[in-house]
Amino acid sequence: MRYQFKFRPYQRRFLRSLTTNHGKWDIREGIILRLTDESGKVGWGEIAPISWFGSETLEQALDFCRQLPERITDEIIFSIRDELPACQFGFESACEWGSEFFSIPNTQSFSGLLPSGKAALNQLETLWQQGYRTFKWKIGVDAIADELEIFESLIQTLPAFTKLRLDANGGLSYEEAKLWLWTCDNFKANSELPLEIEFIEQPLPVEQFQGMLELSTSYETAIAIDESVATLGQLATCHQQGWRGIFVIKPGIVGSPSRLRKFCHQYQIDTVFSSVFETAIGRLAALQLAAELSQNNRAIGFGIDHFFEQEETWLQSLWNDL
To answer: Which of 41, 118, 250, 262 is catalytic?
Structure first.
């Protein structure tokens, strides 16, 4: 198949800075792709890299798009090198655009992202009213003593029968990770509150994989790995090295959707699919993969709409204004 290829870079400002262990993030930048095949059918794709998470940089993605001819083929698309995983996702998604239809889950199937620090307590009620029943809170940002105190308030505030995920973005030391896991285990053992600490996400840096493997067998509270499996290559490596816990997969930067499907079908891994703060285009393609490949009925990490202004006509404006 041959396609006419066009692309446009975009910028979207967060309503409030997203603060993680990696720092503050104010503007989401990416690239929208348009492929038009010989019959006139249009497919849309999105490249939404997060270089500090393990993907290529935006500039590398732009350089790749700029060097492509105006007409490209499936052969070019399916030979994009592994160093450009967000590009692999964007171009393959554009090829598949509209090929399948599925029902988008309601908010009860999504995990709502809470801001770090005390701001989580203020956001909780709003997300609950919007229908969220699983929440993710960023830790490893402030002093651990302060975060443990907020955590106590958070679990007392959470409504019954909710789930809470704690996401450290690799920001804890081994001793801090043990303290968090012990605290969660202790809560589970002694609490009469009908809520669940579902898992702690990426407690240690990527290079401390063995430490996370050890911790995963030492505590009742589950550990999920995220930054450790940012790309398909990392996913395969961690599985080969013995990880049988939860894998948080960000479709927008993991790489080729077709190869991801093959891996998930082959190994039946326990997955949580998660957003990279992409636009509606990348989100639709990512949700398609989540619908196909999710196991164990876990909420998917796409409850992030409240971080952006809702712009109904942004795509049309982007294409017409440039």
So the answer is: 250
Entry pTM: 0.92
Q: Which DSSP symbol is given to 68? A: S
CA-to-CA distance for 285 and 35, rounded, in angstroms? 15
| Local confidence pLDDT in tens for the 322 residues of the chain | 999 999 999 999 998 888 887 788 999 999 999 999 999 999 999 999 999 999 999 999 999 999 999 999 999 999 999 999 999 999 999 999 976 555 556 665 899 999 889 999 999 999 999 999 999 999 999 999 999 999 999 999 998 889 999 999 999 999 999 999 999 999 988 878 788 999 999 999 999 999 999 999 999 999 999 999 999 999 999 999 999 999 999 999 999 999 999 999 999 999 999 999 999 999 999 999 999 998 888 999 998 888 887 766 666 677 675 4
C-alpha 318/C-alpha 322 separation (Å) is 6
Residue among 138, 163, 178, 188 flagged as catalytic = 138
Q: Is 178 a catalytic residue?
A: no
Number of continuous H segments (helices) and E segments (strands) in the chain = 12, 12
Judge whether 6 counts as a catalytic residue: no
